[in-house]
Design brief:
By secondary structure, this protein is of the alpha/beta class. Helix content is 37%, strand content 16%. It has a single domain (11-25, 89-289), classed as HAD superfamily/HAD-like (Rossmann fold), CATH 3.40.50.1000.
């Protein structure tokens, strides 16, 4: 019996955005409300003027938040963000989706690993403190720096729309955190599958808006699958980001939010992971026959 070098990666990754993908509301708005600030007024008075001057949206948010914290007697701290994460409203049955997907994969092939990641444009200290945080291999998002008293005093990592794609490449190589720029100086398409933790054609990306469009593009380019989400109160035709999606970024499906077992979103996730799992099985058969 001839020995064959195994090149197929027995691993699938499902990557989620956070705000309005897993949650019913933007977590930044929930944070402001927890500080007794009106999100609409805060945006109009403090954030929009910065954006009009050319600031990037997420930097403007962080700067405005730091400013208001410094002006308040009760500072905005890491604990403030943690409490928001602990209490933020998630979409229906979000807590059950992870085990359901694991069970579905194991029913197809017991050796295939299913991993979950989160890439958010928001402040990542909020999702890190949600009840579902333990299900994720890693979470990336905007990072805040806190001073010796625990109050927010600077932004230490931003997460722009295009920056989110960087972390797709991170997870594909199995990099969780790195300060070494050489880690990302490589041509993804020239790497052999055996060098990858999760090939991008074995990634499912789930997001709700404009910040996810660059990730949709990368996943589509490399043969993965993407699911767009619109609010429960809306419909596919009314999805405001449809014009941002070109033919090359076409989604695998566009569905209403909500992770109930019989929902179109959950059924779409089942089909995506099943499809990738069967592709892995087929590739393994080919390798065995070589």
């Amino acid at each position: 019996m001839k020995q064959v070098t195994r090149v197929t990666t027995n691993r699938i990754a499902v990557v989620f955005d956070f705000d309005e993908t897993l949650t019913a509301k933007d977590s930044f708005d929930v944070l402001l409300e927890s500080c007794e600030l009106d999100p609409k007024k805060f945006t109009e008075d403090r954030i929009q003027p910065l954006i009009d001057q050319g600031w990037e949206k997420y930097l403007a948010r962080a700067y405005a938040l730091i400013q208001v914290s410094q002006q308040r007697e009760e500072k905005i701290t890491q604990e403030t963000l943690a409490k928001v994460g602990q209490g933020i409203q998630l979409y229906k049955e979000t807590d059950k989706l992870f085990e359901r997907l694991q069970q579905r994969i194991h029913s197809i092939h017991g050796d295939i690993e299913l991993e979950f990641y989160l890439i958010s444009g928001g402040f990542v200290d909020i999702p890190r403190n949600t009840p579902i945080a333990e299900n994720f291999e890693h979470m990336w998002g905007c990072e805040l720096h806190y001073n010796e008293t625990g109050a927010v005093d600077f932004i230490s990592r931003q997460m722009t729309h295009t920056e989110k794609t960087r972390y797709l490449y991170y997870l594909s190589k199995g990099i969780k955190e790195s300060n070494n720029e050489k880690d990302l100086i490589y041509n993804y398409s020239s790497l052999p599958p055996s060098d990858l933790h999760v090939p991008l054609n074995q990634v499912v990306y789930v997001g709700d808006g404009a910040s996810d469009v660059p990730c949709f593009d990368v996943i589509r380019k490399y043969g993965g699958m993407s699911i767009g989400i619109y609010p429960e109160s809306s419909n596919a035709e009314g999805w405001e980001y449809m014009e941002s999606i070109s033919k090359t970024q076409r989604l695998s499906n566009l569905v209403s939010a909500g992770f109930e077992d019989d929902s179109e979103l959950m059924q779409s996730l089942y089909l995506c992971v099943e499809c990738i799992a069967k592709q892995i099985q087929l590739q393994q058969l080919r390798e065995r026959d070589k």
